[in-house]
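Budget justification aside, the reviewers requested a transparent look at the raw inputs and outputs of the sequence design task funded under Objective 1. We therefore reproduce one unedited record. The lines immediately below are the structure tokens for a 381-residue chain.
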């Protein structure tokens, strides 16, 4: 290690008075200060971190080899240099502190550095700065950041793909209901009878379905753009009742009986109304499709509450679950239907889990399947 003035030598001795090195000397009692100095120099030269000693006028009075390498010159070239040219003055000013700063090489180029400054007071007042180049660390961080954002982007794309498919899936229902209502209204008009009340009612229903379709699109768009949903305290029994009126048409078509056993006490959950209704309607539609052609066609929806959760069971008497496939059904694009997309249950799971609940399927002991989900009770939140 270079030393350009007696000041710095005195300074090093001063420092060493409080360092383990000198304590060791006191114990051994066999080393002269020259020897200690030589040993200190050797240690500093071995360090991979740059070490600068700065005198009370702010000039570099000692620099190890790593410092030369870091600042793009020989360690000798640093001697006498103004420390403020190499490191920001504010980073150097505080005594004994760790900081990060933009360091400057002698050629003017800069690099990010981690800096530890220690101030020594005594016969000679000087500072020691230990500097580590953060360039590689920063590059690795930037790469990690980039990878993370790429991953998030890919995840988002996948989510958007899922949502687009879900949108097609969900939107189909209100639109086909609208088409049916409009066709019926037209048919009634063609009969040229005074059916205005009935037609009005049908058109109201078509209007409500159009609003629902709009609601679904809006929610899904919000989900894509903000990743949020609008949650309010809702009665699960009421959600089931409302969803039932949307899902019951399909059941009627196949001559299935729909039974609801909803417990209205202690059933308040914090939920996005449209999303949870989507889940219920989806479970009902799946149940109806599973019962198409089955000898017994009974769909029962029952709610209950236990252990801080409200629960809905959607039981059918359809063809039942394929052996051991209950968990896989919730994976996207798993469909056993000729025209199925296999997306309904995966979206349902995302929705239920985003609400802090759980969704699962099990065989119905009376034949068929039971799809259930739980949502945390509002009181519990
Ligand atoms: P899709 O209805 O488009 O197939 P879903 O995610 O809704 O997609 O369902 C995935 C698969 O789960 C269905 O294809 C079907 O095999 C199975 N499934 C869903 N509900 C039931 C049910 N109630 N009974 C039996 N199998 C069901």
């Amino acid at each position: 290690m270079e030393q350009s003035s007696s000041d710095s030598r005195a300074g090093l001795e001063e420092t060493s008075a409080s360092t383990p090195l000198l304590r060791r000397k006191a114990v051994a009692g066999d080393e002269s200060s020259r020897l200690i100095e030589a040993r200190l120099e050797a240690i500093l030269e071995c360090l991979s971190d740059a070490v600068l000693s700065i005198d009370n006028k702010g000039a570099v009075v000692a620099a190890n080899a790593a410092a030369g390498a870091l600042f793009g010159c020989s360690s000798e070239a640093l001697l006498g240099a103004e420390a403020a040219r190499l490191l920001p003055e504010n980073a150097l000013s505080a005594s004994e502190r760790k900081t990060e700063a933009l360091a400057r090489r002698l050629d003017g180029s800069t690099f990010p550095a981690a800096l530890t400054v220690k101030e020594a007071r005594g016969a000679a007042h000087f500072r020691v700065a230990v500097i580590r180049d953060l360039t590689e660390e920063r590059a690795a961080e930037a790469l990690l950041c980039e990878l993370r954002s790429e991953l998030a982007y890919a995840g988002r794309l996948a989510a958007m793909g899922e949502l687009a498919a879900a949108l097609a899936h969900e939107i189909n229902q209100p639109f086909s209901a609208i088409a049916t209502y409009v066709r019926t209204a037209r048919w009634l008009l063609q009969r040229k009878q005074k059916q205005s009340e009935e037609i009005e009612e049908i058109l109201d229903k078509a209007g409500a379905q159009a609003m629902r379709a709009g609601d679904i699109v809006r929610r899904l768009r919000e989900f894509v753009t903000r990743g949020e949903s609008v949650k309010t305290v809702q009665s699960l029994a009421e959600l089931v009742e409302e969803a039932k009126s949307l899902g019951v048409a399909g059941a009627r078509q196949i001559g299935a009986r729909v039974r609801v056993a909803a417990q209205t006490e202690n059933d308040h959950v914090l939920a996005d109304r449209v999303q949870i209704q989507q889940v219920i309607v989806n479970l009902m539609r799946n149940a109806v499709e599973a019962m198409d052609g089955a000898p017994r066609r009974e769909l029962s929806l029952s709610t209950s509450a236990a252990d801080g959760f409200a629960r809905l069971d959607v039981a059918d008497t359809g063809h039942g679950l394929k052996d051991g496939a209950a968990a896989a059904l919730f994976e996207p694009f798993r469909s056993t239907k000729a025209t199925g997309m296999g997306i309904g249950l995966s979206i349902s799971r995302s929705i239920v889990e985003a609400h802090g609940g759980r969704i699962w399927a099990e065989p119905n002991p009376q034949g068929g399947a039971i799809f259930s989900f739980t949502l945390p009770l509002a009181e519990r939140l």
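The CA atoms of residues 220 and 226 lie 10 Å apart. Residues 135-190 form the longest helix (56 residues). Computational costs for records of this kind are itemized in the attached budget.
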